[in-house]
Amino acid sequence: FDVLHLDGRDLLDAPLAEREAALDRLAPELRIPHAVAEDAAQAQAVFDDALARGHEGVMVKDLDAPYAAGRRGAAWLKVKPVHTLDLVVLAAEGGHGGFLSNLHLGARDGDGFAMLGKTFKGLTDELLAWQTQRFQELETHRDGHTVYVRPEQVVEIAFDGIQTSRRYPAGMALRFARVKRYRDDKTAAEADTVETVRAIAGITAP
After folding, report:
1. Total domain count for the chain?
2. Which among 79, 112, 138 is the end of a domain?
3. Measured between alpha carbons, how far is residue 17 from residues 2, 63, 138 in Å?
4. Is there a contact between 154 and 186 (Cβ–Cβ < 8 Å)?
5. What distance in Å separates the CA atoms of residue 137 and residue 153, rounded to the nearest whole number?
6. Beta-bridge partners for 86
7. Do residues 85 and 202 touch, judged by C-beta distance below 8 A?
8. If phi over 0 gives left and psi between -120 and 50 gives alpha, with beta otherwise, what is residue 49?
């Protein structure tokens, strides 16, 4: 994985390329799979191969960077595929500045919708202002700071993963969900289903 000291010499400040070369000399048979990409196409091929082998992504490291203990930073990045779902907004919670921000997200489930998460991430000031007006127009009732709306507005949500959860009616929760864009070109009937979400996550129906 890495080598920090060798033959009486401290390698913490040595560039990664030098530390990698030392590992190749020391224990080539124990090296984890790695590759140096010369261009974007090669990097994509390495990434695709890692996913095909069942890994969740790859670590990308700067060959010129020293070892930075306890932190990754810009020289050491985890890269994973970005998944998206088209979901329906079921409610929104009031937040700072009087805007409706924290979205309750649902997937189609039979004749209705099942909630599988919340998010306020990815929202610009412009989007906050727009969605506050939009959801006030769709409002059906309120409960405290939560405004419940008619399930009509489709939103594209990016996320890093899906996990089982008893917290939400869908039995699943999105990890690191964030808003990509609103899909005014889609109706709620065209939103993704709970079955689709389960298929992406590899979760069987209860």
Report:
1. 2
2. 79
3. 11, 5, 57
4. yes
5. 11
6. 156
7. no
8. alpha
Amino acid residing at 188:
A
**What string of pLDDT tens digits covers the 206 residues of the chain?**
788 988 898 988 899 999 999 988 888 888 888 888 889 899 999 988 988 888 888 888 889 988 887 766 778 888 888 889 999 999 999 977 889 999 999 999 999 999 999 999 999 999 999 999 999 999 999 999 999 999 999 999 999 889 999 999 999 999 999 999 999 999 999 999 999 999 888 877 76
Considering the domain architecture, whether residues 37 and 94 belong to the same structural domain is answered as no
User: Which residues have a Cβ under 8 Å from the Cβ of 199 and sit 6 or more positions away?
Assistant: none
Q: Which of 52, 79, 106 is the C-terminal boundary of a domain?
A: 79
CA distance 133 to 59: 42
Check whether residue 40 and residue 10 sit in a common domain: yes
Q: How far is CA 204 from the centre of its chain?
A: 21
- 91 within some domain: yes
* pLDDT of the residue at 73: 73
> Quick one: pLDDT at residue 142?
96
List the domain range (segments joined by +) for residue 67: 5-79
For residue 152, what is the domain's CATH number? 2.40.50.140
